User: Which sequence fits this backbone?
């Protein structure tokens, strides 16, 4: 690992040849941020590179760093002895994978990625590299996603069912990425009714809208008329809002949750959701495996998630693979903070305190 | 099968009791009786005899999905439910869908699987996997693997049936007792009006269950309205004597014929038309023997002479549900006690009345309860004298007031994911105590933490794993928990040399360090305490 182009550090990856960090969770001089989710994007770096498409959302999340550069996908910059290019990751608006070319070979680093179509962001683009550093959030073959059309039509049917029963339909989903994807998919399916939003989702949804993503009209649930019972209405809320007093305004609601974790019945039942809709912004197992092949990498390193199964599976196919634990490079108190504050699918399987800062409207 | 799967979906898609009740009642009204009978069979927790072993199922899933067998195993570990794992891994159905009803499918395809040779069985199951998809395939896998917990209780099914039949739910509960064959005739009898020709001779009555008393007994009001008894730590049983025949049922509705020959022969002295409720205890010289001895009788279908000599049992009777062929359950406990005296008048020692504890005021009881350990009982039962014999766990008239359990402080050393609702959460823990500078595992526990604590501990376990042995992880010995248990016995099968009864987590002792956890010697000292055996 000593001669590797990247090493785990500061909760992310450090590249000595280019003297930069990817997705560090501690303050560092220079970073590349793959996307704006809280377990990838932290303020504190003076010099920050990110994909241009992601600038509005990122600055909303972490403020304006001293020296912020938005790169177009495919545009190469020279950092130290490396050439760095960002490619679309298809995860959320402005998400990128990082291609680093150097004397030590070419590395591709996924922040998070998916291959399924998503109307809110540019589709993932593979490129050849020697080493592919892959996320592995859903690294088991039971995670296989249905098509988004199927899921959106299930969501729609559920909403209509709630309307027949005069109940509010409260759909929990992550405030950044998933909520806007659901809205955009509904718009694509021809929905132009007003959809109610939790406050934490509003600025992010406006960021998306300002970048030309078509979504149905939305309104903060707090601005509804007094006595509004939201019967038959669709409400989007972050998972952290479940059980909060904010939910009291939706009497007799049916609760749905949109997440890859909903593929497993126990995950849904444990959290008491009536309905689970399997839609994720991460790659499923077939796409994790396929992407390793598409990147033509001889070596695969997994980060984010339990990579052991994928590693063994790749090993069976003759690909050298290993798992890196980025969290280990943090001080314990940093790690604790992440567990409480992670904002996408990853932390969800165990914690339900994840979206706290989203709920606060950050 | 589709209608049944739709029922499952409606049950699965709501957490509301009323919505579940309505979905069940709708189904029972519309389904063909034969299908409804099978639905009742599965939803009340009955299962088919295992038709395919799980090893085969995993191998066939590997073949059908093109995945390595170890990937099937890893997936199962993660999902925690084999039927669901198989369903998630199998490719989408490809063949012409089948339209049989639940009963047709079970009779035509599922039940006959047991008679087929290996190859034909594999062919049939793999065909089912290509002909069904979605919830139908998941449910078929559930039938094949046996277990069928889908988030409805037997009680809820009983209520829905009572709604459909327009009779009292206790009558439905009674009709659901004992052995029955799920067919159209059964379902029609199940939802029929009240008749006298309801039951077979062997059918037991539903058990009445006590609730734990949380406040002190003063909360129950006038002490004169109450009766106190010992709470025996044995096997709850119903003994039926009708028509010169004897049946003994466990609370789990298992017939225990032949397991307790001494009770069956003692029962010959009971008058016909007698049904007794009590506790089977290992018993000698008018005193209970340790529970570990009774354990040698549980599950032994035909005990031999040595076992019978070493662990003789008695039935301690505390209620009489039927006397002279008359159902007494609507009478008061006082009246039933009188009948009990008559019923036991001629019975030999082995079937004896559980004594009633005399007391005038509530403040006499704590001292009695304190004697529980020394007498080998679990505490006290408090029953309202005017109470009828009800169905299931109904709060108000029967209370159990148990002694405080033993406790010790143990260190978490292994964790393993749970099943079902707790799948892919680390919820099965192993705890250790100090011995000779080592940590020796002494107890496994699954319950006692809040969901919040489980989530937190799960996260901690994931990032503090030392080693993995299949599904089990060893973790850094850091966290200390207070565990409660009911008793302790020597056990050559365990490394620690002891086995605990019903260990469970009392609290997470974050104030204690590992060094402050208990030692094996602390626990072994209890072995010499007769009350702890």
Assistant:
């Amino acid at each position: 690992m000593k001669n590797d182009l990247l090493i785990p550090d500061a909760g992310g990856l450090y590249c000595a040849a280019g003297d930069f960090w990817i997705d560090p969770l501690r303050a560092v001089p220079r970073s590349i941020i793959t996307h704006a989710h809280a377990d990838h994007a932290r303020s504190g770096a003076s010099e920050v590179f990110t994909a241009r498409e992601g600038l509005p959302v990122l600055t909303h999340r972490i403020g304006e760093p001293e020296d912020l550069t938005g790169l177009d996908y495919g545009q190469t910059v020279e950092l130290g002895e490396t050439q760095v290019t960002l490619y679309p990751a298809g995860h959320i608006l402005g998400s990128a994978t990082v291609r680093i070319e150097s004397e030590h070979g070419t590395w591709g680093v996924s922040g998070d990625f998916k291959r399924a179509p998503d109307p809110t962001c540019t589709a993932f683009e593979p490129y050849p590299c020697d080493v592919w550093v892959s996320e592995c959030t859903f690294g088991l073959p039971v995670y296989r996603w249905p098509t988004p059309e199927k899921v959106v039509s299930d969501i729609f049917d559920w909403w209509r069912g709630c309307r027949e029963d005069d109940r509010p339909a409260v759909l929990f989903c992550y405030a950044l990425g998933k909520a806007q994807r659901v809205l955009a998919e509904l718009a694509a399916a021809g929905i132009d009714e007003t959809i109610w939003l939790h406050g934490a989702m509003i600025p992010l949804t406006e960021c998306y809208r300002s970048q030309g993503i078509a979504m149905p009209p939305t309104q903060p649930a707090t601005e509804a008329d007094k006595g509004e019972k939201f019967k038959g209405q669709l409400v989007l809320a972050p998972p952290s809002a479940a059980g909060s007093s904010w939910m009291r305004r939706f009497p007799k609601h049916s609760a749905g949750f949109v997440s890859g974790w909903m593929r497993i019945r126990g995950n849904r039942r444990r959290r008491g959701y009536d309905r689970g809709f399997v839609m994720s912004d991460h790659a499923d197992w077939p796409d994790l495996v396929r992407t390793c092949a598409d990147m033509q990498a001889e070596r695969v390193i997994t980060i984010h998630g339990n990579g052991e199964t994928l590693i063994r599976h790749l090993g069976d196919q003759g690909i050298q693979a290993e798992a890196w634990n980025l969290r280990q490079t943090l001080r314990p108190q940093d790690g604790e903070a992440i567990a409480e504050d992670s904002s996408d699918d990853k932390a969800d399987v165990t914690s339900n305190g994840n979206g706290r800062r989203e709920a606060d409207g950050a | 099968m589709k209608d049944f799967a739709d029922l499952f979906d409606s049950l699965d898609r709501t957490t509301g009791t009323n919505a579940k009740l309505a979905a069940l009642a709708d189904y029972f009204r519309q389904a063909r009786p034969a299908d409804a009978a099978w639905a009742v069979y599965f939803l009340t927790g009955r299962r088919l005899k295992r038709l395919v072993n799980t090893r085969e199922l995993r191998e066939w899933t590997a073949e059908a999905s093109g995945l390595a067998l170890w990937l099937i195993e890893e997936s199962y570990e993660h999902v925690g439910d084999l039927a669901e794992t198989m369903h998630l891994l199998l490719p989408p159905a490809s063949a012409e869908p089948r339209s049989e009803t639940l009963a047709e499918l079970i009779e035509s395809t599922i039940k006959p699987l047991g008679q087929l040779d290996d190859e034909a069985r594999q062919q049939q199951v793999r065909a089912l996997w290509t002909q069904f998809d979605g919830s139908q395939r998941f449910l078929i896998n559930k039938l094949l693997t046996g277990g069928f917990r889908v988030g409805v209780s037997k009680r809820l099914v009983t209520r829905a049936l009572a709604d459909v039949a327009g009779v009292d739910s206790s009558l439905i509960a009674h009709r659901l007792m004992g052995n029955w064959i799920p067919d159209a005739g059964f379902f029609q009898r199940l939802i029929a009006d009240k008749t006298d020709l309801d039951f077979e001779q062997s059918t037991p009555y539903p058990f009445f269950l006590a609730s734990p008393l949380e406040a002190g007994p003063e909360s129950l009001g006038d002490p004169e309205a109450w009766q106190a008894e010992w709470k025996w730590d044995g096997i709850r049983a119903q003994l039926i004597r009708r028509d010169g025949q004897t049946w003994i049922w466990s609370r789990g509705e298992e017939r225990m014929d032949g397991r307790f020959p001494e009770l069956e022969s003692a029962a010959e002295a009971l008058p016909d038309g007698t049904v007794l409720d009590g506790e089977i205890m290992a018993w000698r010289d008018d005193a209970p023997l340790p529970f570990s001895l009774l354990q040698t009788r549980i599950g032994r279908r035909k005990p031999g002479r040595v076992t019978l000599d070493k662990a003789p049992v008695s039935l301690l009777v505390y209620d009489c549900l039927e006397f002279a062929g008359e159902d007494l359950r609507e009478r008061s406990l006082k009246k039933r006690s009188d009948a009990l005296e008559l019923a036991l008048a001629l019975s030999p020692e082995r079937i004896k009345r559980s004594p009633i504890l005399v007391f005038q005021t509530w403040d006499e009881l704590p001292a009695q309860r304190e004697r529980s350990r020394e007498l080998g009982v679990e505490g006290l039962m408090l029953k309202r004298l005017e109470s009828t014999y009800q169905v299931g766990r109904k709060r108000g008239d029967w209370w159990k007031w148990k002694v405080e359990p033993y406790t010790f402080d143990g260190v978490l050393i292994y964790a393993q994911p749970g099943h079902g609702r707790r799948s892919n959460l680390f919820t099965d823990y192993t705890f250790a105590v100090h011995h000779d500078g080592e940590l020796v595992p002494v107890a496994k526990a699954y319950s006692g933490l809040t969901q919040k604590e489980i989530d937190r501990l799960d996260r901690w376990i994931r990032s503090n794993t030392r080693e993995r042995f299949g599904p089990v992880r060893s973790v850094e010995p850091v966290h200390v928990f207070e565990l409660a248990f009911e008793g302790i016995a020597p056990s050559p099968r365990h490394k620690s040399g002891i086995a605990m009864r019903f260990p469970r987590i009392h609290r997470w002792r974050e104030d204690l360090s590992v060094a402050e956890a208990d030692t094996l010697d602390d626990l072994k000292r209890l072995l010499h305490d007769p009350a702890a055996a």
About this structure: The longest strand of chain A covers residues 82-88. Chain A touches chain B through 27 residues (CB under 8 Å).
